[in-house]
Amino acid sequence: LAFLATVPTILGVRHGNRILWTMAIAALPVFFVVGGYHLWRRICPLAVVAQLGRLLGRPGTRKVGDWLAGRYFAIQFALLLTGMSLRLIATNGSTTWLAGFLIVVVVVAAATSFVFAGKTWCNFLCPVGIVEKMYSEPARLHAADGATTSQCAPCVACKKHCPDIDVEGGYWKEVGDRPRRAVYFAWPGVVTAFYVYYWLVAGTWDYYFDGSWAYETDLPSKWLDPGFFFAPLDVIPRVAAAPLTLLVGGLLSYLVFAAGERLALRRALRGVTADSLADAEARQRVRHHALVLAGFLAFNSFYFFAGQPSLRVLPAWAVQGWGFVVVLASAAIFFRRWIRKESEYVQEKFAQKILKKWEWGDAPPSDDLQDIYLLHTERTKQREARLRAYKETVRELVADGLVTRAELVILDSLRAQLGITDKDHQKAIAELSDEERQLFDPAYQGSVEQRLQRQQYRKDLERIVIENARAGAAPSPATLEALRDEYGVTDDEQAAELEG
Questions:
Q1: Max intra-chain CA distance, the chain
Q2: Cβ of 459: how many Cβ atoms within 10 Å?
Q3: pTM (2 decimals)?
Q4: What does the alpha-carbon distance between residue 191 and residue 23 come to, in Å, rounded to a whole number?
Q5: The predicted structure's pLDDT at residue 363
Q6: Lowest-confidence segment of 123-137, 238-252, 353-367, 435-449 by average pLDDT
Q7: Residue extents of the structural domains in the chain
């Protein structure tokens, strides 16, 4: 409703376009930084629209293929560039075009919910999603985040490394992905090029800063006008010049960041054994820092321009206050993200998981032999319980795809603090290897999304089987098929659960 209310606001209010572009949109990145990733995901109007199928009892059942799953960053970025180009040639000034654009976006998001399962629009198509990630990932875990759950009911595991379940885990697993790095590297240049184009088309910065562009209702009719104010590029029409400027800015930015990353990698890998754990850690650290720096520069480039046409009519104290908030938020996110390490994240997840399994107990010291014997017995039980908790925590970490067997060395310091010896660790790993061989198979591709999906599905399946057993009947094929479609479970997976 909030999103759709934007349409009559734009059409019925004289300053509707200006309010949207120079106030509402300008405030979003700061909201992402201050409010955090999940807050916006919960209140985003389009996120609700993209769940209409589920809310109306007609959810989509298709899952995106490997092609889209591996290229969603590039697709979202392409859609983002399309929307930004459309701003420069139509929706900036035309209320009709802007209202039509918003309606089309709503219809597409709603249609997606009736075809695809889960939050396909948010995870794979929404262009705002990648901007939100650039400005908020990775974020340190909080105590309230200890329970890993899905915002969707039921979870259909529509995406591996789902940001609604574990946004930081997804970041560390995808930090080396080329599409993500390419988008991050290009984004600072795209942001800068977007605002520079106002000068390139008008020949003066006053065109942007006085906000006159927000009242150009005839902007779509100027598509074939000169796209640049200077020769010889003035022969390029505006409809081509706008996207061309964004592409050139993005390409230059990408080349600069890619070259800087290569130089940093060369320096970081000096004296490091190839294909070793130290090699992997050094590569990840450099790539992480490159992504953080790209997000930081893009954020500040955006706020050098964003909102200025409206801020200039406010009192000086308001402008200075807004500038202080932006600088503070920018510095906070930069330093928080810069010092963050995957090992810290894994250790925090380990601590949260093992605390839920820990059997606490304590007893005061005593001089009585009987008390000492009882205390020894109690301590032995506690040690066994501690080992069980450790083993189950390791099982969950590996099953969720957070760490591999080789990466368990990250937990060495925590293991020592818990009194878990290397012998105990090897024993736990051996037992897990016997109990669930697939966990330590190099080809294993487990994820927390699959685990949550299977847990919820198993719980509902057990309920249906028990209810039918009490009635002296077996679940009907139609009931099982409906449950299978609801959770996106295959026939083989359902057969395995029924046999189990």
A1: 98
A2: 10
A3: 0.77
A4: 17
A5: 47
A6: 353-367
A7: 2-136+175-340, 345-439, 448-499
